[in-house]
């Protein structure tokens, strides 16, 4: 099986000798075999294990088993524990969907932090068959019909060449020990029901079912590649992003052929279902502000575009800024605070929204950076009267899901700058200004 493994990796161009791979290891037969193959192939790898806390002490024993496996192979070990059931209940999704979202987000975090090139999962041909059948049962697009891709971004499946029987023969031949997940026998999980009941019936019709499905998958994948090329061109034309959100020009979508299909493909990375895509499309001609949710993202139908933001942004607490602070980070952005400088003759006050040009003598350190809240007000530049921040954001046509990410810079309790929008008129540069302080948001 080692030769087939190496041949598959080379044929699919999955891994280069110099690359590092993070293996997702549950302790089950498939992932343990993947570890053994990586070790015998002398590839550079580490092991990551998720304890989903769903099977009590059995889950903890799985964790200890995988940790010992990392010691055996002398590779780094990463582990985390999730409150999976609680997350599933809060997000109103299945336990399996919750586990999938949690583990892949964590794997990607570890991959980036520790400079791994890929994340490898131990899916095999039987998993492809089960996935295709499950997707057909639930309803699916093209991607659901190819089941599981050999490579998807930073995720690779280097054991996808093998059937379950091949893997079992390998563990017997090499006397490999693994952990058996007791939940695999329970038909309360949909995939197990297909594996234990549906596939055996279908194999009575076609004993060579796995190979037949694999050939079909290859043909569908070719069709998907053509479709994806068109979708990639469309993404470049009608979507864009910044540090806070992804934007989709929905007016352009209305002019397309098969608009719902294409909208669903555009929204798929943010876990919106096809039914949700249909509902979003129907909301195009309705008033702005309609909100749609997935476990990971919020979509708001704004005036001319869809605005998509991460649902679980890190909580932000106010930051105190001392006079000697030069850079202040908050979320994915930062403030660059310039030194107090004498104003020069002919100086022109910059008007860019990302810059706040302030009269240095009017601000008092320490400054505070915080999110706005109801009741906050300021005197917008050019006005000599108060305006509620909430009303100002409405005037600025800030999408609903971006309003909560608006920050205020304050001095002695007074708003100096609605960051990225407008300064307060009381702190502006005038003819009497001697020194200025220039603050930039990036």
Describe this structure in words.
The structure is a single chain. This protein is of the alpha+beta class and 442 residues long. It is built from 15 helices and 23 strands. A hairpin with an 8-residue loop joins β18 and β19 (387-388). α4 (84-91) crosses α5, α6 (125-138) packs across α9 and α12 (259-267) crosses α13 (274-282). It starts with a helix and ends with a strand.
Architecture blueprint of SSEs:
Elements: H1 2-12, E1 20-24, H2 29-40, E2 44-51, H3 57-73, E3 77-81, H4 84-91, H5 95-113, E4 118-120, H6 125-138, H7 142-145, E5 151-152, E6 155-156, H8 164-174, H9 190-205, H10 209-238, E7 239-241, E8 246-248, H11 250-253, H12 259-267, H13 274-282, E9 291-293, E10 297-301, E11 306-310, E12 319-321, E13 327-330, E14 333-337, E15 341-342, E16 355-359, E17 367-371, E18 377-378, E19 387-388, H14 389-395, H15 400-403, E20 407-411, E21 414-418, E22 422-423, E23 435-441
Parallel strand pairs: 1-2, 1-4, 2-3, 4-6
Antiparallel strand pairs: 5-6, 7-8, 8-11, 9-10, 10-11, 12-17, 13-14, 14-23, 15-23, 16-23, 17-20, 18-19, 20-21, 21-22
Helix pairs in contact: 4-5, 6-9, 6-10, 12-13
Tags for this model:
442 residues, alpha+beta, 6-stranded mixed sheet, 15 helices, 23 strands, 21% strand, elongated
Uncertain stretches of 5 or more adjacent residues? none
Secondary-structure content class: alpha+beta
Average pLDDT, to the nearest integer?
89
Give the overall silhouette: elongated
Task: Characterize the largest beta sheet: strand count, sense, and whether it forms a barrel.
Answer: 6 strands, mixed
Helical content band = 25-40%
Could you tell me the number of beta strands?
Answer: 23
- Total DSSP helices: 15
Q: How far apart are the termini?
A: 52 Å
Q: What share of the residues does DSSP label as strand, in percent?
A: 15-25%
Whole-angstrom Rg: 27 Å
């Amino acid at each position: 099986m080692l030769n087939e493994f190496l041949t598959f990796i080379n044929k699919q161009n999955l891994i280069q000798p110099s690359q590092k791979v993070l293996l997702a290891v549950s302790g089950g037969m498939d992932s343990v075999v993947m570890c053994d193959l990586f070790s015998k192939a002398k590839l550079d790898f580490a092991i990551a294990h998720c304890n989903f806390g769903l099977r009590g002490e059995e889950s903890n024993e799985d964790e200890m088993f995988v940790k010992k496996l990392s010691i055996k192979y002398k590779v780094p070990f990463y582990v985390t524990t999730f409150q999976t059931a609680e997350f599933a209940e809060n997000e109103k999704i299945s336990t399996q969907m919750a586990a999938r979202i949690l583990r892949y987000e964590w794997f990607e975090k570890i991959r980036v932090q520790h400079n791994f090139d890929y994340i490898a999962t131990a899916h095999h041909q039987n998993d492809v068959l089960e996935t295709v059948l499950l997707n057909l049962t639930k309803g699916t697009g093209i991607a659901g019909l190819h089941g599981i891709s050999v490579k998807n971004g930073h995720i690779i499946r280097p054991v996808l060449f093998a059937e379950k029987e091949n893997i079992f023969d390998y563990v017997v031949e090499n006397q490999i020990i693994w952990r058996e997940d007791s939940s695999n026998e329970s038909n309360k999980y949909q995939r197990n029901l297909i594996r234990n009941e549906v596939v055996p019936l279908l194999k009575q019709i076609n004993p060579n079912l796995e190979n037949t499905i694999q050939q079909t998958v290859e043909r569908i994948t070719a069709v998907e590649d053509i479709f994806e090329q068109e979708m990639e061109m469309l993404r470049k034309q009608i979507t864009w992003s910044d540090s806070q959100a992804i934007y989709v020009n929905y007016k352009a979508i209305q002019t397309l052929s098969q608009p719902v299909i294409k909208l669903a493909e555009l929204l798929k990375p943010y876990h919106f279902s096809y039914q949700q895509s249909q509902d979003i499309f129907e909301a195009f001609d309705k008033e702005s502000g309609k909100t749609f949710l997935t476990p990971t993202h919020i979509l708001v139908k704004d005036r001319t575009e869809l605005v998509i933001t991460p649902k679980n942004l890190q909580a932000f607490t106010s930051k105190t800024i001392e006079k000697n602070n030069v850079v202040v980070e908050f979320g994915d952005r930062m403030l660059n605070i310039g030194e107090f400088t004498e104003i020069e003759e002919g100086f022109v006050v910059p008007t860019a929204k990302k810059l706040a040009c302030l009269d240095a003598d009017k601000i008092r350190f320490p400054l505070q950076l915080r999110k706005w809240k109801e009741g906050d007000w300021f005197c917008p530049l050019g006005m000599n009267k108060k305006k509620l921040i909430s009303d100002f954001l409405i005037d600025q046509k800030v999408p609903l899901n971006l309003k909560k990410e608006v920050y205020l810079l304050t001095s002695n309790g007074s708003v100096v700058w609605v960051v990225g929008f407008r300064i307060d008129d009381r702190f502006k540069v005038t003819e009497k200004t001697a020194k200025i302080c220039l603050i930039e948001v990036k």
